[in-house]
Amino acid sequence: MDLLAEYRRATMFFEAGDPTGAARLLEPIVEAEPGNSSVRQLLARAYFQSAQLNRAEEQLRELVERDPSDHYAHHVLGRTLERQNRYADALRHLRIAAAMHSTNDDYVTALRRVETRAGLGR
After folding, report:
1. One digit per residue, pLDDT tens: the chain, 122 residues?
2. In which region does residue 113 sit, left (phi positive, over 0), alpha (psi from -120 to 50) or beta (all else)?
3. pTM of the model
4. Alpha helices, DSSP H only, in the chain?
5. How many CB atoms lie within 10 A of CB 73?
């Protein structure tokens, strides 16, 4: 299997609005290259976009465990937990992302939204 070609194909599926198709292509690549964070991140995003939230959470936790300074992985993990109505769990990751990258409006907006939903709004 030409992994680079499959990754490019998966990216095209994702960008065309077919996250499920992208995930199908990305899963064997992650199996073949479990340390490839870029592929794992795209797989997590594909799962998130296709509402496969438990699978997204699994991939994102792996990314955060490997690199605790990955603010984007923290943000998407927080958003994933938010979509599961797990606000207390989401807050931890959204706070980390916002603290690491405080100029990112998406990070701050997500944090404020979940703080409000958790009853901690300012």
Report:
1. 688 899 999 999 999 999 999 999 999 999 999 999 999 999 999 999 999 999 999 999 999 999 999 999 999 999 999 999 999 999 999 999 999 999 999 999 999 999 999 887 55
2. alpha
3. 0.92
4. 3-15, 19-32, 37-49, 53-66, 71-83, 87-100, 105-117
5. 26
10 and 25 Cβ atoms separated by less than 8 Å: yes
Please give the angle made by the CA atoms of 29, 32 and 36, to the nearest 5 degrees. Answer: 70
Return the structure tokens found at 25: 């292509």
d(CA 22, CA 42): 9
